[in-house]
Amino acid sequence: MGALRIVTLAIAICFLINTPAAVLLVPLPRSIGSATTTAATCSSPPEQIFHQLIDHSNASDGSTFGQRVQFNTTFYKAGGPLFILQGDESTDMTCSELMEFSQWAPEFHAATMVIEHRYFGQSRPFGNDSYTNQHMRFLTLDNVMSDTVAVVNWWRNNVTDGAGKDAPVIVFGGSYAGSIATILRINYPQTFFGALASAPPLRTFLPVTDDPDRFNRYDLVTQFWMDHAPEAAAKVRAGFQELEDILDAGNYTEIPSIFAVCTTPKEEDRDEFLRSLAAIYSLVLQANTAYLGPLFNLTGFPFDAIASRTLAASSPLAAVNETFNALCYSSIASNGCFDWTNQCSDSVGAELVPLNYLRCNYMNYDYGDVAPGSMFAPTAPYDSTEYCQKTFGITPPTKEELFAKYHFDEETIRRTTRVIYSQGGSDPAVKSVDRINLSW
């Protein structure tokens, strides 16, 4: 999950947008056409429900679902831009008032919009039955992009009484949503004037066997720990070595007495268990921003707090456990344990079932194979194809199929204009981003 802390990019937006002097302030209606106000998660203003087609490829069917959106035209003036936050894999919608671009709206006379991703949060086409394989067939990248285009087109003609008809639209997104933002700009240039993509893992939108950096993720995590807390890194390395020895001796029943796991891993789970625990360390760096600290019951930057706890721990295994206690805090607090199979993704608000469905269809990656030499226990190479086939009946597409359909090959990305890419310095997804040209 990539943070959208990209304040310095406000200067760059000036080169994307020309704000005219004409003034027409358009207030946000409370009930508008095919969108209605709903019980509020967001407060400034409340979110609304947009009646979205379930299947854009079969519009004649006419079936719709309620997709949560948030519009704010408080500072909008005719000709000003529309800033959109593209929804991601979160269990709840991110409110625009919490985002950096809401602070830019007065300067640019901009309207802001947030669109919740279909099948996530409350935007479930079939309610509690949305996660059956039969119903998830409408969870496609084509439908996700068409959702955003449909809301933009409707906004132009309804929310602003036509004043936003020619507004330049800038789409924002972080991590997975950053990839969507880029792909929207590539495939719908007539709708999206520009995009700001924070840590978009575009290179993971490929079969796992085509990822040349599949072994690098945990090398990068290790290097960050070595650079910033070498003594703590050595303690973590020792802890994983002890854990590896316990597993390889067949003593799996000892694990619940060491870590607060909800289920005891079995011998056949060895590599998945070790990969999942290493992935939690990766999450520490992905979430290493001060404003996410309280999410894990931490103060300040998560990495700094966890490194301090690691050093203070009574043993290497206890040191490793400090990371899980912090990152899996919400699960442990509510359930008394954490589900190691989801790498504590629930603690940062990720909806795992539809995310895995998307991964199988477009991003056939695991959290990375753990190669020898990192501070974690090495694992055998992993290919999630079998999981995708067994769980969802999906055989992941080839690189050629994805490039042909969505046009995000490196050459196209490099020649696509008006896209700004940003990257958190500690994010181990850097290798999925660093070959992208900063394009205008």
From TrEMBL:
One of its GO terms (biological process) is proteolysis. Signal peptide: none annotated. It holds the Pfam family Peptidase_S28. Keywords: Glycoprotein, Hydrolase, Protease, Signal. GO terms for molecular function: dipeptidyl-peptidase activity; serine-type exopeptidase activity. Belongs to the peptidase S28 family. PANTHER family: LYSOSOMAL PRO-X CARBOXYPEPTIDASE, PROTEASE S28 PRO-X CARBOXYPEPTIDASE-RELATED. This is Peptidase S28.
